[in-house]
Amino acid sequence: MKSEQSANSLTDEIVEEPGGEFSNTKVYQHLISFITQVEASQDARFRANLEILVQFMASLDPVWRLVQSSAFRVKLLKISAILGISNDQRLRDELHKDDKDLAQLLVLVASSDVYKKAVLRLKGGSAQNCIDLIQDILDKGSIPSGDEPSIMKARRLLVRLSEASDTLPSSLFIRGVSRLDKEATFGGTFGDIYRATFEGQTVALKRIRVFQRDSAQHKRFCREALLWQRLQSPFVLPFTGIDAESFPSFLCMVSPFMRHGTILKHLAENGNANLETRLFEIAQGLAYLHSQNIIHGDLRGCNILVDDGWHACLADFGLAVFSDATGVTHTSHHGGSVRWMSPELHYPQSCGLENFQRTFASDVYSFAFVCVELYTGKPPFSDISHDAAVMLRVIAKERPPRPCDVSGRTTMSDALWTLVQQCWSHDPAERPSMAWVLELMQDGNEELHLIPPSTYLQGLPNTPPGKKQSFQVHLSSRRRPKGPGTTVYQTLSF
């Protein structure tokens, strides 16, 4: 009797909330069905309250079903504990089925323009609930791994909601970070880097210098954290979490501390040792990003670090975007490093494009300039003082000269120099994919080997440079025929 009364009080507590538009889709129907089969749940009042509870959830539209689902799950599990069935394996099996149903509901919402607009209007606790749910579904892998388009839709919706609501998943926040230095170890354009410790390891805290809610910097922080968190490659700086305790009113992104610093510093201290190997690692890191449908957007020497094994790691994803975001989505993110930016980012019309839009091709262009930067130890066009003048030269199809030493002897191999020239072609469609870049680098240098086996390259095309690609690159390797006037690097609308 006592357990029935407790369960009744829980169901009474839930049904006080208002409902919405009717829909037949149910949430946690497998768990509910299992609960109703328990003998202790046969009390008439309990079953009536449970029926009201089910009707309440069924009355919500898909968006609000997602928002309310976590609270609904907690209440049902409390009821299960009272009924003495919380440790039953059958309960966990039913929850697993319900997780997959929730994932299908999320895909439904992420595939509808109407529902996506409703999601992006969420604020406060509702936005937090929805963000935490999407993050949890992605973490659990509840969307089938073979359904890459649906996974990408969920990831894009998570990023957009985070930016719109200035909210991040609760699971990304970590506790127990201890700052080691009062002063920043390094200062960049948008933020500062501090040394700290976390779980016995030295880490770096990246603190954004201006951090106000609803600010462009805050939205950039949210996007960077969410894109970065799922990247796993030996040539990409690992993401540890978000620290909210070290600096009052500031959030910090946490990553392993790279004591060797940037690739520029490392090469200068070690006489450019194994330079082409480091470039090959950078190419692998960039190819991995592209296989994940992510464009780095700001590739340059200062954003490439060196780990304890002397391997190159791509860092700073503040301008990173999904590859199928539209030019409109990008308009608030026109920043970047002028000397490494492709001509279509300076003046789209010079390349036959209508809008500013970062693409895989613009990353490939930046890679070419990183090659020259690392061989010379200087920024591209180092003889030109003003960025505006550099921009005009790039638009006029001028490029840096081949790197050479003080005696005028070339330092870059013929094979790599040929590849660099292909990568910085004025026409974005003439630039090779990063998968092809890796093959060409290996063809030119037998000592270069993919580490580890590059399974992440399966979704990238191997079209020789100079040939137009006739399909769209996607993570799932699905190929989309090219429409009139399009190229491989023009992408789908968000």
Automatic annotation (TrEMBL):
InterPro entries: Kinase-like_dom_sf (IPR011009), Prot_kinase_dom (IPR000719), Ser-Thr/Tyr_kinase_cat_dom (IPR001245), Ser/Thr_Kinases-Pseudokinases (IPR051681), Tyr_kinase_AS (IPR008266)
Organism expressing this protein natively: Mycena belliarum
Key words, A-Z: Kinase, Transferase
Domain Protein kinase: 179-448
PANTHER family: SERINE/THREONINE-PROTEIN KINASE TNNI3K-RELATED
Pfam family, one: PK_Tyr_Ser-Thr
Superkingdom per UniProt: Eukaryota
Protein name per its UniProtKB record: Kinase-like domain-containing protein
Coiled coil: none
Alphabetical list of Gene3D superfamilies matching this protein: Transferase(Phosphotransferase) domain 1
